[in-house]
Amino acid sequence: MELDPRTTALLVIHCQGDVVGPDGAFADFFYQQVVERDVIAKIARLADTFRTAGGTVVYTRVAWKPDFSDLQVNSPILGIVQQSGCLKDGNPLTAIVEPLTPHDGDIVIDHQRVGGFAGSGLDDALRSKGITSLAFAGVATNFSVEGTARVASDLGYHTVIVADACAAATPAAHEASIESLGLLADISTIDDVTNALTATSVTS
């Protein structure tokens, strides 16, 4: 696998307190696997690798207005959002968790759907920087990671799933999602992506 850091972005999906934290609205769904797979620390290291190599780090953050006037409940998971009152803009648990706090130069894209491209400026932000390859990390593998990755593939991006930097509610859900993405994306590891980036680092 070849990854030019000048045209590659790490796309970090929904690493927000309500999604990945112990006190979040979705803690019962995702927190155990987030901890067992150590994905936050792994993503932090991977993000630093991207920055050092000259790549781009992008965070997608799902957030709705405090009155939910921009929340369209057309799926069970968005019904849970409505019922729990979570992920409202301005709430501390809607922010990116502290170990992954965006750095200067990182990009944060807010959106209101499960996937990161729908109704957001994500595609425009990536194309404005000349990004052609996307490496995916975050939560949940079978929801927002997979949903956003499928659109990325359709939009023509070289799509890479960093499997050991993602988590779902269960190991089985994670593995099923990874298997289903195998013909749409390169299934990779943190080590593979690190080696590909450093082999073609802009400093070389």
From TrEMBL:
Query: Which parts of the sequence belong to the Isochorismatase-like domain?
Result: 8-190
Which InterPro entries does the UniProt record give?
Answer: Isochorismatase-like_dom (IPR000868), Isochorismatase-like_hydrls (IPR050272), Isochorismatase-like_sf (IPR036380)
In Gene Ontology terms, what is one molecular function of this protein? hydrolase activity
- UniProt keyword annotations, A-Z: Hydrolase
Chaperone as a keyword? no
What's the superkingdom here?
A: Bacteria
Q: Quote the Pfam families the UniProt record gives.
A: Isochorismatase
Q: What's the protein called, per UniProt?
A: Cysteine hydrolase
